[in-house]
Amino acid sequence: MTDNPALEKSRVIPVQIEEIMKTSYLDYAMSVIVSRALPDVRDGLKPVHRRILYAMNELGNFHTGPYKKSARIVGEVLGKYHPHGDAAVYDAMVRMAQEFSMRKVLIEGQGNFGSIDNDPPAAMRYTEARLAEISLEMLADIDKETVDFIPNFDGSLVEPVVLPARLPNLLVNGSSGIAVGMATNIPPHNLGEICDAISYLIDNPEALAEDLFQFVKGPDFPTAGIIIGREGIREAYTTGRGRVVLEARATIEESAKGRHQIIITELPYQTNKAGLVENIAALVREKKIEGISEIRDESDREGLRVFIELKRDVYPQRVLHNLFRHTALRSSFNINMLALVDGQPRVISLKEALEYYLEFRQLIITRRSRFDLKQAKDRAHILEGLKIALDHLDEVIQTIRRSGSVEEARKNLMEKFQLTQIQAQAILEMQLRRLAALERKKVEDEYAELLKKISYLEDLLANPRKIMFLIKEEIKELKEKHGDSRRTQIIEASATGEASLEMEIPHRKVVVTLSARGLIKTVPTDAYKRQKRGGVGVIGVVTTKEGEDVRQAITADTHDYILFFTNKGKVFRVRCFDIPLESSRTSRGLPLINLLKIEGKEQVTSMIGVTEFLPKVFILLATSKGKIKKTALSDFSNVKKDGKICMPLATDEELVAACLATNEDQVLMVTEHAMAIKFKVGTLRHASRTSGGVKGINLKPGDRLIDMEIAKPGHFFLVVSQNGYGKLNSLDSYPLHNRGGKGLCSLKLSPKSGLIASANVVTKEQELLMASTEGEIIRIPVQGIALRKSRASTGVILMRLRAGDKVASVSPFYEAEEPEKEEPAPETKKKPPAPGKPK
Q: What is the dotted CATH code of the domain comprising 249-328?
């Protein structure tokens, strides 16, 4: 403080806080951008990586020598060039030594340098390192004034602004970093492809980006993997920004026990393997991925290997598809080719990156050639003086002997033989052995070679085209010495996704069953053995819990769409291969609520398998009150798992049946009291999905509609009662009526038969899967059921049921494979023969 207020006032400078904040923040931002986070387009390095390589070069820590402690290298970098934390330097050095991070490692590490499991490296006092052989390409000619040097942080040393970088490191190893308000994410590439593109660009400077795509196929990651599609690659190479989808390399194998295994040998770039395995295990526990029984990490020094064993009879392609959907086995790499160009951040395309590299290498070779030319001329100048001395050897010796001092001798030589001071000094320093005839010849030969070199360098500097040719030769040599084959495979986008999943999953006949508790599953049809009529069914679902019974059962192909119609008048749709395929008939299955968004009291009353949503096919819907509606099948093609309204219902009305039909078909409606009516589908008007129905059959009091079928020519009508009795009639025994009639009797009911449980239109070539409410399923051929002429007869027993059990559903299907040998129905226990009578 001072006693002079005027003087004190003059030292106060008023400023706006906004301006101070703005300028300070911009200074900080530019410091981060230029000096920390973004790579230089010329050598593809950030300052810390550049300083590490240069410090190791100054230490002589080459690949031909011994390793040096990492702590010593880090200390060298910190003390001389990079005054920041040692952790930042060591982390940067570690990454340059990781084969799973760098396409071409620049540092050879010895010790624990981390792993693909995201294990941290050992402390720097335990590890050792040295420059990799390819790093010499980054540092080549650095001592020939090829790059500018600037003072280090304390002005005691100098460091290079950029490395000469014969290796196109920006594209080969890529780079990633987050600056202030911007980020870079450049993927690594194959050295051979980049070299080929550079050579082509030298010969064709006006080449378009598309012309370079024939050489640079796409990124080539050190962890290999598979790139899906080329559109993202083209966009990134053209604009500097794009997105590529990466997938792990996974193969499906079958073990000797008949189980399938998924073997993962390659992962997407920067994927944590240990985290991936833990994530898969968590998804299996949460039942978000079904069908996996065991996961093991079998990786070793030979390479990566993750073993996933699957349960029996699951679709391995479906499991793999779900793994791709829910885990990092499929991930995206967002390309942002942002680099420093003349000290300013700029997004560059592939061609621009190659052009900047060529421009930089042209400057490096020019500066190197000028340095070599100067060195050659200086040496030639000295050799010219030595030649003069050797040609006048005796006079030179006498002149030196007569001189009183070195300075006088130098001056006398310069005056007598017209030499420069440099030449005279070289003569004075010449050793006596150079006077031999052989040494004189070496001087002459060296001088002749220097003249040739000078001529070559002068011509090279005068002709930029020759410099480009030299770059091409260096690139060719670089490819031959360090190039290798591509690791990352690129496939077209159409070769993956849902389409490929459909192609990979085999077509297979399955039984889709739905229990009363809402458990759904698919089981191969051959899991149910064929029996004669009257047999006792095998257990088809688990019956350990009360109320566990079969509510619906249909046959379908694994590629079909399954439409679920509920009693509330809603429809849902899933693919058949989305439903778990169980290896055992007694497997419980998956809760239907995991597939469909069904409300608490809502129940599925009909399931339909649809192969294709054809335009002239309709869906008929029938309610418990005998109403019917015809809606185009195509109206259901966009139905999802969330469901949609298919028919509005009254409060006391339920949707009980749904089936496929055409206008040429005839429909049969059957009630619980065995009344049946047949009329033409064409008489029904085409209704929208949200409209109501019309009367199809006139019900008696207490009766309700239980089923609806399409009457096809040449087929037969099978009705089955709740107690397992069935009757097969010709469809001709049911004449056509107008809709809305009372119908005809289809089965003589009695307490022994019970009410009607199911009605089906079948052929003699079909087989039946009959399911009971207690979970028993029997498979019998229709051929084994006798044809009855009378509509009103009781029928024959088709399935023997235990006490209290009832028929839940009957599903006819065609057997595509070779039928199994029939098993006879169980024989009733006979009484032993009476004594004395023949057995």
A: 3.30.1360.40
